[in-house]
């Protein structure tokens, strides 16, 4: 059996094969490359390799390939674009080696080329995908930065607004207290009491508005839980304030908190204030409003009940949505945020707020785990 | 911020009263001078360095805006000269480093006493009667093509190359390292190289200048070399028998011989 036909192996190899002389002029081109490129052998031999490279290929050959071959003797896996006889680019991936004599002088270069049209297209797609991702990332970062800026501005705005609204209210309240000490008639006392009541309602509204703004625009309902400090005095103070603001109304409070409750006391006080305020506004004045709080095994329950017209069926569904306002005298209308904030406070404590309403009694109940 | 010596991976060898500083061009690093610089070590102090962004330079020092013009590279060369307290030294610049030398010589008079420009071009793009050999569209084509040859520069490889240029166990990994550059930096350097225009700076060269021009060079043609020679006052040009753009690698003996007639 005859040995392998080396000539045929080179000429019809599954890759293009080009050899250059020491002066980088073309010495030989195999048939595979001639078929790919459409060039005739006699048109290539003796010419510079550069004559058969695209413009970038020529620059790349001079600045990278030729120097690297001189310095390290080989260069693998480089992209190089050849030119076909028709002048179109023939994209290839190539390996090259430099042949040297014993003194290290270059004797010539051998280049093996693999067609890489699809691969190059794929690489270009990857590159443009990367560019897109980088651009998108930049845009996102910019949006995020703007959003952070806006959010910080909002926080500041809310803090300043709260401060500026509360200050004049404190002055009114102090003024009403001073007046109350000096006025004589029953009618005058009623006026100062009304002033105090308005201050309390206004102050609750400010709290609710600020919490709503914060909850919707950023931070959410903030809370600082502390199980060590007693909850009852906080609730009693809320009841006292509303009593003072609603002369002539009876509020029955019944507290049985005998275990620590891991909650934000101010927040639970705010929740009670909102529920109690509602009960006083919507309930009948003919019967007392009842406040009850107690701890069970592992849970805390607080409810506020009033008598009077039940809540209409249609209103029940929307009760805890922001800006929902029930029927009430215009002078007692709130913003419609009280129950929404109360429900948010309940949620922040892993608890819930429920309502039951019948002609006999309307009752809002807050339940939360006590630890 | 690293010192100038680390930043530019400056290597000083040899001994002599005068120093020869070798600057490399676009593509590879100071290894471009490996067959030429040693020939002068007996009579001169030889200085080789990597442009920031190339070879063993400190990539963290790469500042897009500074290196968006050749002037930024010339500032680095001046800083290297000051650090080494060079006076009346010889600067040998290959390719784009030729113009970097032209700029540096004018920024720091006295630092360099002679210039050798190997394959220089004051402007690569053809312009109103001037023949540079390139068109603006071709430059854009080149920049796009450079993206195809990242030479194994992947995010995984980058730290190894940047952090451990001398670790022999990474030997195989560091294949091509002489010419391997972060693709973004390679593109930026190609842009500044091939779009620069230093024709007006040639007249300001006030020191003896030798131009080494290859007989056949598709990057810097004979015509381009002659333009440089004509516009630098009192310069001299030697046309080498070598072909290609890198006679310092392909014909080092000829380059050394030509330089000896001048230095």
Short note summarizing the structure:
Chain A is α+β, with helices and mostly antiparallel strands and 371 residues long. Chain A has ten helices and ten strands.
Name the helix and strand elements of chain A from N-terminus to C-terminus, one letter apiece. HEEHHHEEEHHHEHEEHHEE
**Quick one: which chains have the greatest interface?**
A-B, 31 and 33 residues
- Number of helical elements of chain A: 10
Structural class designation of chain A: alpha+beta
Strand order, largest beta sheet of chain A: 2-1-5-4-3
Low-pLDDT residue intervals, each spanning 5 or more residues of chain A? none
The proportion of residues forming helix of chain B, as a percent range, comes to 25-40%
Kindly state the percentage of residues in helix of chain A: 40-55%
Strand content of chain B: 15-25%
Largest sheet of chain B: 7 strands, mixed
Q: What proportion strand of chain A? A: 15-25%
Oligomer: heterodimer
Average pLDDT confidence of chain B is 88
Strands of chain A, total number: 10
Structural class of the secondary structure composition of chain B?
alpha/beta
Mean pLDDT of chain A: 88
Low-confidence segments of chain B, given as residue ranges, are 155-165, 167-173
């Amino acid at each position: 059996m005859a040995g392998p036909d080396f000539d045929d192996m080179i000429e019809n190899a599954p890759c293009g094969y080009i050899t250059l002389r020491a002066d980088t002029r073309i010495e030989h081109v195999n048939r595979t490359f001639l078929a790919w490129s459409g060039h005739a052998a006699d048109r290539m031999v003796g010419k510079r390799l550069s004559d058969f490279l695209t413009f970038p290929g020529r620059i790349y050959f001079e600045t990278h390939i030729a120097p690297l071959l001189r310095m390290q003797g080989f260069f693998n896996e480089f992209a190089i674009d050849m030119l076909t006889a028709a002048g179109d680019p023939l994209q290839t991936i190539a390996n090259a080696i430099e042949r040297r004599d014993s003194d290290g002088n270059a004797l010539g270069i051998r280049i093996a080329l693999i067609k890489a049209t699809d691969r190059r297209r794929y690489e270009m797609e990857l590159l443009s995908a990367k560019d897109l991702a980088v651009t998108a990332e930049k845009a996102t970062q910019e949006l995020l930065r703007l959003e952070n800026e806006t959010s910080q501005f909002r926080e500041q705005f809310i803090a300043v607004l709260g401060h500026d609204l509360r200050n004049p209210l404190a002055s009114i309240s102090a003024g009403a207290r001073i007046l109350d000490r000096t006025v004589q008639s029953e009618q005058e006392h009623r006026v100062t009491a009304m002033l105090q009541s308005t201050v309390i309602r206004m102050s609750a509204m400010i709290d609710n508005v600020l919490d709503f703004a914060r909850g919707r625009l950023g931070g959410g309902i903030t809370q600082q839980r502390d199980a060590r400090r007693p909850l009852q005095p906080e609730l009693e103070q809320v009841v006292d304030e509303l009593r003072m603001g609603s002369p002539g109304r009876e509020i029955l409070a019944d507290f049985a908190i005998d275990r620590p409750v891991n909650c934000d006391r101010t927040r639970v006080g705010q929740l009670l204030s909102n529920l109690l305020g509602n009960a006083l506004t919507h309930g009948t004045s003919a019967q007392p409003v009842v406040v009850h709080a107690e701890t069970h095994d592992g849970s805390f329950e607080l409810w506020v009940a009033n008598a009077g017209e039940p809540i209409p069926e249609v209103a029940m569904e929307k009760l805890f949505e922001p800006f929902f306002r029930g029927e009430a005298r215009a002078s007692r209308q709130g913003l419609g945020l009280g129950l929404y904030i109360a429900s948010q406070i309940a949620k922040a404590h892993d608890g819930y707020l429920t309502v039951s309403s019948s002609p006999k009694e309307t009752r809002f109940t807050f339940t939360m785990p006590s630890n | 911020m690293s010192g100038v010596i680390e930043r530019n991976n400056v290597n000083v060898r040899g001994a002599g009263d005068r120093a020869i500083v070798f600057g490399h061009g676009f593509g590879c690093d100071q290894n471009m001078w490996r067959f030429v610089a040693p020939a002068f070590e007996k009579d001169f102090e030889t200085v080789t360095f990597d442009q920031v962004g190339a070879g063993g330079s400190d990539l963290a020092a790469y500042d897009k805006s500074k290196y968006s013009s050749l002037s930024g590279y010339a500032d680095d060369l001046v800083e290297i000269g000051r650090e080494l307290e060079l006076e009346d030294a010889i600067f040998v610049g290959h390719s784009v480093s030729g113009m970097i030398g032209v700029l540096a010589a004018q920024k720091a008079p006295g630092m360099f006493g002679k210039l050798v420009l190997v394959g220089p071009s004051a402007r690569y793009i053809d312009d109103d009667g001037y023949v540079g050999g390139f068109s603006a569209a071709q430059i854009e084509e080149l920049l796009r093509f450079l993206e195809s040859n990242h030479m194994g520069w992947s995010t995984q490889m980058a730290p190894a190359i940047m952090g451990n240029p001398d670790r022999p166990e990474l030997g195989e990994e560091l294949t091509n390292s002489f010419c391997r550059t972060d693709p973004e930096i390679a593109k930026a350097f190609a842009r500044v190289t091939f779009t620069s225009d230093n024709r007006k700076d040639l007249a300001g060269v006030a020191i003896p200048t030798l131009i080494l021009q290859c007989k056949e060079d598709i990057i810097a043609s004979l015509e381009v070399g002659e333009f440089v020679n004509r516009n630098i006052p009192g310069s001299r040009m030697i046309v080498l028998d070598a072909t290609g753009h890198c006679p310092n690698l392909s014909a080092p003996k000829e380059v050394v011989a030509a330089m000896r007639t001048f230095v």
